[in-house]
Amino acid sequence: MHPSAPRFSVIIPTYNNVATLARALDSALSQSWPAHEIIVVDDGSVDDSRAVAARYGDRIVYMFQPNSGVSAARNAGVRRASGDWLAFLDADDTFAPERLAAHAGWIRRDPYLDFLLSDQDFRAPDGAFLHRSIDATPFGRDLLERHRGQTEIVLDAHDFGPLIGHGFVEIRTLSLPRHTFERLGGFPLGKKIGEDVHLIVRLCAVSRRAGVVTRSLADYYIYPASAMRKDVAGAQRASVALFEELLEELTDAAPGVREGMREKLRQARLNIAYMHLRQGQRGAAVNSVLPLLRPLPRWGAVCDVLSIVRGIR
Q: Scanning 9, 142, 230, 286, which has its CA 20 to 30 A from the CA of 77?
């Protein structure tokens, strides 16, 4: 490859994913733009994940660590990485064959992109197609309409707020420079929900330009036993805590980024309120959205609270 070509380190955390790890590895190894390296971080698996990884020999780098969570596993993989760009793949998902090529080619033409994203397919465990990522979101649909027919769309700082609040933030389609990841401090530790959103919001806060490939470059498999779906209420509460923490942390971020975070927090609080309404707990539902009125009430927040008070779902 040309000396200026981006070298991708693909980081794959795994925890007891023996049934799907080979599928993920095969997709990473089948890239039309070969990865500089593929690093598998085994986060304390007690199944046969190590044996699966061993079958790939020196085509991958295998690391084992005591169970510490997905953020710690990804961060450990980046510390081992030597590429100048990073891509992340979970052990139960897959890359499309052009995943790295689509981003690498654009980076070569426009080296001043701070990060890149793309569309992705949501799939059932049996592989059945469910829906795409970009056109399933309000900002994504607006973006496709404004740039009809384009397969590459440049986002500027004005787009980052809507991307956060109503967009298609997906870790398996994210490409970013390793030095940027290191400057941000990596994924937050101790987060079982939303660690990817946490990183991407902080990334938006320090970025000026990003690229979006409108083709699907990854498959995201939806499993009923995932952490978010096993405990929906707990996941919703964790999301609220995460977004409140980010708002506190990003006091100096651009107004658009903070507005996007406030919208994410609004949606998270409304989701909790709707859950309480479905359970007939109107008081708990109202208490879930009252914080939206602080520090200064906005008309939209007032309307949200009134809708919950009236029991509108």
A: 230
What single string gives the DSSP state of each residue in 4-64? Answer: TS--EEEEEEESS-TTTHHHHHHHHHT-SS--SEEEEEE-S--SSHHHHHHTTGGGSEEEE
SS3 of 231, please?
Answer: coil
pLDDT score of 134: 97
Task: Mark whether 56 and 143 lie in a shared domain.
Answer: yes
Q: How far is CA 65 from the centre of its chain?
A: 23
Question: Does one domain contain both 211 and 273?
Answer: no
Q: How far is CA 198 from the centre of its chain?
A: 8
- Residue 281: domain span: 231-309
Q: What's the CA gap between 231 and 236, in Å, rounded?
A: 9
Nearest by Cα to 14 from 83, 74, 54: 74
Within the chain, residue ranges assigned H as helices are 21-29, 49-54, 70-80, 99-109, 138-146, 157-166, 178-184, 195-205, 227-230, 232-249, 255-278, 282-289, 299-309
Average pLDDT value over all residues in the chain: 93
Specify whether the CB–CB gap between 264 and 164 falls below 8 A: yes
Burial of 57 (0-12, 13-18, 19+ CB in 10 A): exposed
Whether 182 contacts 141, CB under 8 Å: no
Q: What is the pLDDT of residues 257-302, one digit of tens each?
A: 999 999 999 998 998 998 888 888 888 888 888 888 877 667 777 8
Pick the last residue of a domain from 198, 223, 248: 223
Structure tokens at 35: 């990865």
| Residues 119 and 193 both lie in one domain | yes
Q: What is the pLDDT of residue 291?
A: 85
Tell me, yes or no, whether 237 lies in a domain. Answer: yes
Same domain assignment for residues 147 and 292: no
